[in-house]
Design a protein that fits this description.
alpha+beta; 1978 residues; 13% strand
Length: 1978
């Protein structure tokens, strides 16, 4: 049975538990769990990180911990009772753990490793705390370390700053907001601006001396030297080195390391140096030979110097290698360091090139105790302390020091009978009063212990040696009296004995008889002769002698005259001994009473350091004198006391204040002194007003604090001694004193008056007196003193008066004093404080101090639980609210709105106090209860005052919400702020409802309220979704979700508005929309219904809600682009509003609005998701296009439309899609006109005229067309710009434009252009973005991009997509799947510009553009077998499924892909398929033969391969298979309807044979010698083929030359009117193209017919292709017409995806077809470049001829629909033929010979028109009198007539010139219908068309190339537009072309204006497009 747990409430998981049992809860090690119930070894509960998931788990997995339970019961909260630091550490480490792993994923290795070390360190410290074995001090240190590391980690991870007090986290509810702000600010400043240390220390670690000439022991001395004053700053640090140059005692680190302590900030400068002197211990000369002498001398070795300033810039612990200089001139050794510093070191040698002193130097900052904590290892390991010479900048009390430093300066010695100078060594001893040598009191420096004796170094042969060697004598104070120092002088012989012979001595006393020590300075000592050591044994013998020449009596001339002298410099640093006689006189005043007066006067002249040394003794002396002679010396003692008190105010001595405090408390014994002190103090105060000089009085008042301390302590001692006598007298004296003070304070004086300054001095010290008065007087009495004193100040406040700021300082100290913390005194003092504070804040003066006072006041006002103090606190809050609330808000507004000069101190000042004032306001509002709010609101007498107050407080709240109000990591402060704001707003909303509704409605107040609420909800610090789970849980537990609370309040207030809602429509739509986008479901459910309300009210007002819709749409784009909103919001918005409007009368329009907004959201969400991706890809571009079109077509939002145009343009540029970028920018260009209308600045465009902007756009677009190699389009824009320049006579720019246009022509002809592939892509499944979902697109591939590369690119863009392995249309399960499916295969383009492609003589460079540009339609063929498959002959059942895709826009356009708008499927029968295959092959043969004849081929291999492929296939059964399949009786009987088609097939076979015969003749002419055997083989096989076909002789209609060119080239036929059937020998060589263009030629020549060719073709071609790489192409229908035994052409599957991606599954025998289908469309046969010859769209009825729209083919009709056997096989116009003669006179000479017609078969459904040249050749060469002229694409000239030839009309005699490059014309006006006899009819017969008629029809029915003659006939050149936005040109073409100089037209489009999607024979209206709107507002 499950029993609720009583005490087992909280635990930690010891081991992970999988939770595999029923109701089991998975646990991870370290999780904390809350236990709810228990049952037989199992607990039931939940993990704290996921409280919603409850389950069971074993008890053994849980370690129980003590916890405190809040709200016991269902909603209980468990809080661990462990140390708060441990709790914080645990939760913080959990948060860090997750973030630490993310750092690894982000590859932030540095922070990852640093955080890892810190986390381990914290865990170690946590263990120490948990063990509980630490002392209190150690625990404090550990906690400090823990919190420091926690703060560091939080800062590094951008987590929140944690407010702490004594290492524990602070609960914001437990302290006032002002205290919280102080804590936050303190922690921030501690983190940001560490206080610069005033004390510094230098750590030195001696490592080694590196030198090549060592061999003797060394002594190294370090000291700090002041180069400016040329004196040492510190004592010396002494290290002994062995013969190897390393320290002698490596185990004793204190002998190697030292800390130079107490360096001031002034010592860290460039001219302060570390000086190192090195002595060697050994023989006199460094190069002397070894001798028997064992005596060693200290001799100079070298010196090194380094500046301390170098250490400031170096790294913390750099090792330094100091250069060591050796002194060759020993007489200068004493100043070697000075010379090195002055760079006079040329005379010194470096001790060696590799000599150097290796030391480690580090500067440390802070006091010594702090260093002991921070560098614990340093001090525990051992380090010697090297002291400063003299005291530090700050003298600490209790510091004990008694060091005497002596420097052996120099000596003067006689030769002593020697021929050379002496080698003098000094031996130093310290002797006590008994004459005994004091042990261990002579030290060479720190680092080595002191010795009994000290030996100086020896200078060789020098009678005037200068040592400058410092020694330290640390003699105890009690041993100073009677001690002396003796200096013995010895000559060191260099002879073998090496003895040291004594020749003299000197001595000096350490203390004089009067108790003063040896004065600091240089002393000249007398050298007494002495040669025996025994003479010095008794010191009393020589102590009677004079020791210094300064002390000699005047009559002792003998000693004065001696030359031998010795100089020393002494310096005493002692805290106990003095050298000052005046100090000693004062301390011994009883011995000399007559000197008391002088001693008191001289006290002020004594150095402060001497006074503080003897502070207690001095004070005892003063009060002793006062007690004995108060009448005589009272004033002087008082002045001395004031001097000492003021001395302690000095920063150097302020640490001695505690010493004085201790003296007053413990040692002061002047019980009667208070009377004298009060009397003298009152005497001074009474004379303030009359005194001329206020300086001394100000000093007295400055010491008021300590004077009162002495007065109060003296009175307490007196009362204690007498039992409280004279109490009334004392109180009376104090009252009189305060009366005098109030009187002098009440005086009004001039600002510059000395009295005013004296008042200020008193006010500064007055608050310090309160605490002393409280020791004797009651709280109310003291509060009365303070109130009366402060109230006596002058009331008139002048801003410039310095007294005003001092008043505030006094008030501040009062509020911070102990007196103010008491409730009784606070009630007395509060009115005075508030009055002064209010006056300053109203005048905006001294705001920093005002903020400080207010902060202190409100820190004391808290919510008390006890009822006793609650009324008092409530009363205080009342007073503060009445006095300061409004003023405080106004101050905040003033500060935040005040312009602040950057970089000034004032700016920093205001920045600091803004936060303090805000904290004060929050603290005050937080203390206000219902009663306070009611009183506050009732206090406003008028509505206007209340209105102003509400507007003001709402404005202040908006300021508090600003992100910059608090620092980024102050989340705790922000949450407290928001809690206070929402509480206050709930109170104020009632006032808003009661006072400003109905007839009293005030829009401004309500608007301010709503605006505040919206900003509140949208704050980043309230977006809980962005928090970590633990942080989110803490916030929700403490405050709840404040966004929902505010949202409910908004909804409630909105509902109260009633009809006033209309005032906020549409203004509040945007803000409310922003609120609903917050990802909080409850908030959305509350706020979204407001939009229904808005729609309803707007409907009532205006009958629609267009305003609501417009505003919603406008705001959505900006908000969603900022990252707001999600798919859930879209669904919620849709569902909530649809449900709300179900019963509305305006439901339909509402549904429309909701649908529009929802669709916009879908697109915006897709766009946002795409934009987040780093690189530009098709998805991002496609999404932008979708959004752009939506704004244009559905929303008609012009400005947004233009913005997204430019976003799309930038994307294209980034992706280097220059052509698409041009088309995109054209969308904006077309909205502009050539006008001078001014346009405002917009996006990146400056303010300019519409003409200028359009010109700039044109130039930009031309530049991009040029970069995209789309030069034809650029030419049109160049012309339009040229027309504009010409109309303005801007010939300079006109010239440039013409040159640019010419350069584009050159590029067309000279540069190679790659033809892109096209791919169909299907996006299936619900996981795709909306704009792609379940749609199919055709994409224009990149250069060189084949199918496999494109597939891989798409899969990279959609990494989660699955590639479909088939090309069939998917079913509904795929459409509805929660996945992504991609279906990709290649498609073939169907070009529109057939006139250019079919025209003879047009270079391939030009044709290639029209083959792949302006493409609307694409085709894909799939072969299949219908019925039973004949294994012997697969052609019988081989059908083709032809899919035609029509796009919404042509490619290229504003995107690389466009959606498929229409999809059509047509099945092609086997017979039709065979016809197409042979037609294709015939056309290819004609083209190759023509190229060979015209010498366009540099290589005859393509023709050889083609002939070989066709002839070999036919011999091996290719054509025979067709005969077997379709010419047999069974087929004819079973398919009677195919009779015409069978005849057509037979005709094509005969035609192919004839072409082959002619081709072989041409081939024989040009074949190289080495290929003659192959040619012979081809001829033989051809005869076999003819016989297999049963051809003995060609029919009459094919006897004419199948390949005919006049003068040998297609173009020359226009220049010579005499037709000539050229033999192979007569070909004229015209270079047409380079070999590199052949693949394209073959491809497009073949694809002009059908896309089906047999698989055999690829087989045969593969066998016969040349190895030449130019022609090493993939199999193509061009290579063979028939196959012997394979069923499907490769081109049937040319568009299919590769087999790996799901190509159609064929049998093995079709493997080569499958492989071919894997090829990209550039490599494999592409059939759809030219339209299907069977397309019925080429048949046009007579009434269509005048239509300007270009007829387009439709390949998708079934075969029976294509049969139109009514007209001539090649006549273009059988209706107007009779009237065509009038045109022939005008333009006949421009025509080329037509393609020879073939005799039609009555039943043929295939096209009977085989070829139609755009510029037909003349029909009657015999009647041509003038040579014809072929129009160039840019010129048109009149020419003579060319009459029709009745002989050639309808015959084959004209050759195949027009078929050599072009396929069947898709633009022919009508379809021929007559029979065979029509071939011989005259010009007037229906099937005869005049040349003039042909030219007219070409003009009427063809869209010319962009730069054709046609342009000159139009009145205006068009703006080049995409298809979707183009306007059809005028239907009436001009009768005659204009002259060349006539102004160019502007109505021509980049894209033919005719609609590409034309149904069978029915004229189609041009593609609809809304007229372009002008950007009038731009």
């Amino acid at each position: 049975m499950w029993i609720p747990t009583e005490h087992e409430k909280y635990g930690v998981v010891l081991a992970s538990f999988r939770g595999t049992v029923q109701h089991g809860l998975p646990l991870e090690i370290g999780d904390t769990v809350q236990l709810l119930e228990k049952c037989e070894g199992w607990y039931r509960g939940f993990v704290h990180k996921n409280p919603n998931a409850k389950g069971i788990f074993p008890c053994t997995y849980i370690h129980l911990k003590n916890a405190h339970i809040k709200n016991k019961g269902q909603f209980e909260t468990v809080i661990p009772t462990e140390d708060s630091v441990i709790t914080e550490m645990t939760s913080t480490l959990r948060d860090w753990g997750a973030m630490w792993k993310r750092l690894y994923v982000k590859n932030d290795g540095d922070l990852f490793h640093r955080l890892w070390h810190v986390m381990n360190e914290i865990l170690d410290l946590r263990r120490q705390v948990l063990v509980g074995h630490l002392t209190n001090d150690r625990m404090k240190d550990v906690k400090q370390h823990i919190t420091a590391r926690l703060d560091w980690g939080n800062e590094q991870l951008s987590l929140d700053l944690v407010p702490r007090r004594e290492f524990s986290m602070v609960d914001p509810d437990e302290i006032s907001v002002t205290e919280l702000f102080k804590l936050m600010e303190h922690r921030h400043r501690k983190k940001e601006t560490p206080v610069p240390a005033s004390t510094h220390h230098l750590f030195v670690h001696m490592k080694s001396l590196m030198s090549s000439n060592l061999g003797e022991e060394l002594e190294v001395f370090f000291h700090i030297y002041d180069g400016r004053e040329n004196r040492p700053l510190s004592e010396r640090f002494f290290v002994r080195l062995n013969k190897n140059g390393v320290p002698k005692s490596p185990e004793k680190t204190e002998r190697q390391c030292t800390l130079f302590v107490d360096l001031g900030s002034s010592d860290l400068r460039k001219d302060v140096y570390i000086v190192v002197h090195i002595m060697r211990i050994g023989r006199m000369g460094a190069g002397e030979k070894k001798n028997l002498c064992s005596i060693q001398y200290r001799r100079p070795f070298g010196c090194a110097v380094v500046s301390i300033a170098d250490l400031l810039t170096a790294d913390s612990k750099d090792d330094h290698l100091l250069k060591v200089y050796a002194c060759t001139t020993e007489s200068e050794w004493y100043q070697i360091h000075e010379n090195i510093i002055r760079k006079v070191n040329s005379r010194y040698n470096l001790s060696g090139s590799n000599t150097g002193l290796a030391v480690s130097l580090q500067l440390l900052h802070g006091d010594i105790e702090q260093l002991r904590r921070e560098y614990m290892v340093l001090f525990t390991r051992g380090v010697s302390i090297t002291k400063k010479l003299g005291f530090s900048d700050i003298i600490m009390p209790g510091e004990m020091r008694n060091d005497l430093y002596m420097t052996l300066e120099k000596g003067e010695f006689e030769k002593g009978g020697k021929s050379v100078a002496r080698n003098v060594e000094i031996t130093v001893y310290v002797l006590d009063i008994q004459g005994q040598v004091m042990k261990s009191y002579v030290a060479a420096g720190s680092g080595e212990p002191g010795g009994d004796v000290y030996h100086s170094f020896v200078l060789y042969h020098n009678n005037s040696p200068r040592w400058a060697e410092q020694i330290k004598l640390p003699i105890p104070v009690d041993m100073f009296r009677g001690s002396h120092v003796r200096f013995e002088f010895r000559h060191c012989s260099t002879k073998d004995k090496g003895e040291k012979k004594l020749f003299g001595y000197s001595f000096v006393h350490l203390m004089q008889e009067d108790g003063r020590t040896l004065p600091d300075g240089t002393h000249e000592l007398i050298i007494h002769k002495c040669e025996e050591n025994a003479n010095l044994q008794d010191s009393s013998c020589y102590l009677k002698l004079p020791f210094s020449k300064a002390n000699l009596p005047g009559n002792n001339q003998a000693v004065k005259g001696t030359k031998e002298c010795f100089w020393i410099t002494s310096f005493l640093c002692s805290t106990k001994l003095t050298q000052n006689g005046d100090m000693l006189d004062l301390l011994k005043w009883r011995a000399h009473p007559e000197r008391i007066n002088d001693s008191l006067l001289k006290l002020k002249e004594i150095d402060g350091s001497e006074i503080v040394k003897f502070l207690q003794d001095t004070l005892d002396t003063l009060f002793g004198i006062l007690d004995e002679s108060s009448q005589r010396y009272g004033l002087k003692v008082f002045d001395c006391l004031v001097h000492i008190i003021n001395l302690l105010q000095d920063s150097k001595f302020h640490h001695f204040k505690p010493v004085m405090d201790t003296y007053i408390e413990s040692h002061f014994a002047g019980a009667l002194s208070y009377r004298d002190l009060i009397k003298v103090l009152k005497w001074y105060v009474d004379r303030i007003i009359d005194a001329e000089h206020q300086d001394h009085i100000q000093q007295v008042l400055n010491a008021t604090e300590y004077i009162f301390k002495y007065i109060i302590q003296s009175r307490r001692l007196f009362a204690l001694a007498t039992g409280g006598q004279s109490e009334e007298e004392f109180r009376c004296c104090v009252h009189e004193l305060f009366m005098s003070i109030r009187f002098f304070l009440s005086q009004e004086n001039k600002i510059t008056s000395p009295v005013t300054q004296t008042q200020a001095v008193f006010l500064r010290t007055f608050p310090a007196v309160y605490g002393e008065l409280l020791k004797i007087f009651t709280v109310r009495e003291v509060a009365g003193f303070v109130r009366e004193t402060l109230g006596s100040l002058p009331a008139t406040a002048r801003a410039e008066c310095p007294l005003e700021s001092v008043k505030l300082h006094c008030i501040a100290k009062t509020v911070e004093s102990q007196l103010y913390t008491n409730t009784e005194s606070r009630c007395i003092l509060l009115p005075v404080v508030l009055r002064l504070l209010q006056a300053h804040m109203q005048e905006q003066r001294d705001l920093v101090m005002c903020a400080r006072i207010l902060t202190s006041m409100l820190s004391l006002v808290r919510k008390y639980d006890s009822t006793a103090t609650e009324p008092v606190v409530s009363e205080e809050v009342d007073l503060i609210v009445d006095s300061l609330l409004v003023v405080l808000m106004r101050t905040i507004l003033e500060i935040t709105n005040r312009p602040q000069a950057a970089g000034t101190n004032m700016r920093l000042q205001f920045q600091d106090i803004t936060g303090e004032f805000v904290a004060c306001l929050l603290a005050l509002l937080r203390q206000m209860s219902d009663k306070h709010y009611q009183q506050l609101l009732q206090a406003f007498t008028s509505k206007d005052d209340l209105r102003d107050f509400l507007l003001q407080i709402f404005t202040v709240f908006r300021i508090l919400i600003r992100p910059e109000m608090f620092l980024k990591d102050w989340t705790v402060m922000r949450l407290v702020t928001n809690n206070v704001i929402i509480t206050t707003v709930l109170y104020l909303s009632d006032a808003l409802r009661k006072n400003f509704l109905n007839d009293k409605f005030d829009y401004k107040v309500w608007d301010s309220y709503f605006y505040l609420s919206v900003i509140f909800i949208n704050q980043p610090c309230l977006q809980l979704e962005s928090f970590s789970p633990s942080k989110r849980k803490r916030v929700l537990e403490k405050y709840g979700d404040m966004r929902v609370m505010m949202g409910c309040e908004i909804f409630s207030m909105w509902q109260n508005l009633g009809e006033h809602k209309l005032n906020f429509i549409p203004a509040m739509i945007g803000p409310f929309l922003e609120v609903t986008l917050v990802p909080q479901p409850d908030l959305r459910n509350v706020m979204i219904p407001i939009f229904h309300d808005m729609m309803d009210w707007e409907q009532r007002r205006s009958g629609n809600f267009k305003q609501v819709e417009a505003k919603l749409i406008d705001k959505l784009d900006g908000l969603m682009s900022e990252g707001k909103g999600d798919e859930t919001y879209r669904e919620l918005f849709n569902s909530i509003l649809l449900k709300k409007i179900e019963r509305e009368t305006w439901r339909e329009s509402g549904v429309s609005l909701i649908a529009t907004v929802t669709r916009l959201m879908e697109r915006l969400l897709d766009y946002r998701d795409c934009v987040k991706l780093g690189e530009v890809d098709g998805k991002k571009i496609g999404c932008t296009v979708s959004l752009l079109n939506f704004y244009k077509t559905e929303l008609n939002k012009e400005e947004m439309y233009i913005r997204y145009i430019h976003k799309l343009y930038e994307l294209h540029l980034k992706a280097q899609n220059y052509t698409e970028a041009s088309y995109t920018l054209l969308l904006y260009d077309e909205l502009l006109e050539w006008s001078e209308r001014p346009l405002r600045e917009f996006l990146n465009y400056p303010m300019q005229s519409e003409w200028q902007r359009k010109e700039y756009l044109h130039l930009t677009i031309v530049q991009n067309f040029d970069r995209g190699k789309c030069w034809e389009n650029g030419i049109i824009l160049c012309r339009e710009l040229a027309d504009q320049y010409e109309s303005y006579y801007d010939y300079r720019n006109l010239s440039k434009m013409r040159m640019m246009e010419a350069s584009l022509y050159d590029k067309i002809m000279d540069q190679q252009r790659l033809e892109p592939e096209f791919f169909r892509v299907g996006f299936y499944g619900k996981k795709f973005p909306f704009f792609l979902r379940n749609k199919e697109f055709v994409c224009r591939g990149h250069d060189y991009e084949r199918l496999e590369a494109f597939q891989q690119r798409m899969l990279n863009e959609f990494p989660h997509a699955i590639a479909m392995q088939h090309v069939n249309q998917p079913d509904q399960t795929i459409y509805q799947a929660e996945a992504q499916y991609l279906q990709i295969y290649a498609v073939s383009p169907i070009p529109e510009s057939q006139d250019v492609l079919q025209r003879d003589g047009v270079p391939d460079n030009i044709k290639s553009f029209y083959k792949v540009n302006h493409i609307w339609r694409f085709r894909y063929d799939r072969p299949f077998h219908k019925g039973t498959k004949d294994k012997e002959n697969e052609f019988k059942s081989l059908w083709v499924e032809r899919t035609s895709l029509t796009l919404v826009q042509s490619l290229p356009g504003i995107s690389r892909w466009f959606e498929v708008e229409k999809r059509e499927l047509v099945e092609v029968s086997p017979l039709e398929n065979a016809i197409e295959v042979i037609e294709n092959k015939n056309l290819q043969l004609r083209m190759l033969i023509a190229q060979c004849q015209s010498r366009q081929m540099q290589n005859i291999n393509p023709l050889t391969m083609c002939l070989n492929g066709v002839i070999d296939a036919a011999v091996n059964g290719g054509l025979a298979r067709y005969q077997e399949a379709f010419f047999v009786k069974d087929y004819i009987v079973n398919h009677p309807e195919d009779g015409e088609k069978i005849g057509r097939l037979r005709e094509l076979m005969f035609e192919q044979a004839h072409i082959l015969e002619y081709g072989l003749a041409v081939h024989e002419k040009f074949v190289p010698q080495d290929m003659r055997p192959l040619h012979k083989k081809l001829v033989d096989q051809f005869h076999v083929m003819k016989s297999s076909l049963g051809i003995q002789e060609f029919p009459a209609y094919v006897r004419a030359s199948p390949v005919h060119f006049t003068n040998g080239s297609p173009r020359s036929s226009c220049r010579n009117s005499v037709p000539n059937i050229i033999s192979p020998d007569g070909a004229r060589v015209v270079a047409r193209r380079s070999p590199l263009t052949y693949p394209a030629v073959n491809r497009y020549s073949s694809s002009s017919l059908s896309s089906q060719a047999s698989n055999e073709v690829s087989n045969i071609t593969g066998q016969s292709e040349s190895s030449d790489e130019v022609f090493n192409m993939q199999p193509s229908p061009s290579t063979s017409s028939l196959s012997s035994n394979h069923s499907a052409s490769p081109n049937v599957t040319s568009s299919a995806p590769s087999s790996t991606r799901g190509s159609p599954q064929l049998q093995d025998k079709h493997k080569h077809s499958r492989e071919n289908s894997c090829l990209s469309s550039r490599e494999r046969p592409v059939s759809a470049i030219y339209p299907n010859p069977l397309d019925p769209a080429q048949r046009t009825t007579p009434h269509q001829i005048g239509d300007t729209t270009l007829p387009r083919s439709d390949p998708n009709l079934s075969a029976p629909d294509k049969v139109r056997p009514t007209f001539s096989s090649w006549s273009l116009d059988s209706v107007k033929e009779v009237n065509n003669t009038q045109f022939s006179d005008t333009v006949g000479k421009l025509l080329c010979p037509p393609v020879p017609p073939r005799p039609p078969y009555p039943g043929s459904s295939a096209k009977t028109i085989r070829s139609q040249s755009p510029v037909p050749t003349s029909r009657s060469p015999q009647k041509s009198s003038l040579p014809p002229f072929t129009p160039s694409p840019t010129e048109c000239q009149s020419a003579g007539l060319v009459s029709n030839s009745p002989v050639l009309s309808g015959s084959y005699s004209s050759g195949i010139s027009s078929m050599s490059r072009c396929s069947v014309s898709e633009a022919s006006g009508t379809e021929a219908t007559t029979g065979d006899h029509a071939a011989h009819q005259g010009p007037t017969m229906p099937n005869s068309v005049s040349s003039g008629s042909d030219e007219l029809i070409r003009r009427e029915n063809k869209t010319p190339p962009p730069y054709s003659v046609y342009e000159r006939t139009n009145p205006r050149r068009p703006v080049p537009l995409p298809h979707s936005l183009s306007i059809p040109p005028s239907v009436d073409p001009p009768a005659l072309p204009p002259k060349p100089h006539q102004q160019r037209t502007s109505s021509m489009k980049l894209v033919p204006a005719s609609d590409p999607r034309r149904a069978d024979g029915v004229p189609h209206v041009p593609r609809p497009r809304p007229l372009p709107r002008k950007v009038s507002q731009l």
